[in-house]
């Protein structure tokens, strides 16, 4: 049984609930276009900052780095260093599953 199956609707709607707060935080992060693009790119695997900047049209490294720091602090991403390079990957399995769902949904809408 997944964690989400154990949550009652009352718990989900409780503004004081930890789960509700986490959902609001995640949707707030997903609501930013650059952060959403970063998450979609990282869904395909670990990437360094340079790879992310190059993959996102009109993105600047300081802005991408700021968004990565925010998502790492929120526990959504993990970071590792290799010399001077910083590599990021998805750390939250629920967010990874949600991105998978969104990709499948988008693909089905394009076909239908």
Question: In terms of topology, how is this protein built?
Answer:
Blueprint lengths: L2 H4 L2 H5 L4 H13 L2 H11 L3 E2 H7 L5 H13 L3 E6 L2 E6 L2 H19 L1
Antiparallel strand pairs: 1-3, 2-3
Description of the molecule:
It is globular and about 45 Å long. A hairpin with a 2-residue loop joins β2 and β3 (85-90). It has a domain at 33-110: Orthogonal Bundle (Arc Repressor Mutant, subunit A), CATH 1.10.10. It is an alpha+beta fold and 112 residues long. The protein starts with a helix and ends with a helix. Helices cover 64% and strands 12% of the residues. The chain contains seven helices and three strands; from the N terminus they run ααααβααββα. It has helices spanning 3-6, 9-13, 18-30, 33-43, 49-55, 61-73, 93-111; strands at 47-48, 77-82, 85-90. The model has no long low-confidence stretch (mean pLDDT 87). It has a three-stranded antiparallel beta sheet.
